[in-house]
Specification:
With 286 residues, the protein is an alpha+beta fold. The chain has two domains: 139 residues, MutM-like, N-terminal (N-terminal domain of MutM-like DNA repair proteins); 102 residues, Helicase, Ruva Protein, domain 3 (Orthogonal Bundle), CATH 1.10.8.50. The protein has seven helices and 14 strands. The longest helix has 20 residues. It binds zinc ion (ZN). Zinc ion (ZN) binds next to loops.
Length: 286
Amino acid sequence: MPELPEVETIRRGLVGCVVREKGGKILSVKVLEEKSFIGEPSSVVGASVVKMRRRGKALMFDLDNGKSLICHLRMTGQFIWVGEERFAGGHPNDNFIADLPNKQTRVILEFEKGKLFFNDQRKFGFIKVVETGEVEKDAFIAKLAKEPWEMEGRELYEKLQRHNGAPIKSVILDQTVICGLGNIYADEALFYAKIHPRRKAGSLSLAETSKLVEGARVVMERSLEAGGSTIRNYVKSDGTKGDYLELFAEVFNRQGQSCRRCGEKIVKTKVGGRGTHFCPKCQKEC
Ligand SMILES: [Zn+2]
């Protein structure tokens, strides 16, 4: 599943393809799978994209006719732009370079200057038409907490008190507590702040919590610089494979390897059912 930096990478890539004169007007919307498109396809025909936004892992195309498209990629969604240039982002597989449409194509947005394919093998993702003024009220958007860039340590600290007994790793994965941390970035942010993933959320000091928020920002920014992340190779906008994990991960998928800070072996365990990586020396349990 793409994490926040991957979705931001997609947003930045699509800005260069579909916004205003880059893409031109939407000429048609072909819905090949009904559950992948919610709303009336004809209501966006003739409109242009004026802005691409992201909130958590949702992408929004704001149109010049008062409508917006909210998109969730979920497990296997992809956006592939085929125009003068080709841009692909989302779940990485051969669709990135294949002829389209194919049997995983769910929606085709035909613009004046190219086609945007929404592919989604497992069909959990979707595109939804809403009024632009209603985007923030959408059920998926409204419940999201602030992202690390918008949040101070004290705000997270106060929220942690309400999840006192739960392991900190599980609490920071809760998108209603802090938005944007998936499994990879939660492990990396905890390592950055030298906090054991199983510590009780309520046991963190304000200083530790502030360091954790800082760590969340730092690790996601490093990932963005590396061009986005997933476990498997990620095909970037220029067709090369992203190797972001090698570029920045300190603990994720590094079990058995030496901690770059202290030399201890990185350990993999489970916390709240999720694979969790940490350094037992840098991140003490108490
Ligand atoms: Zn260490």
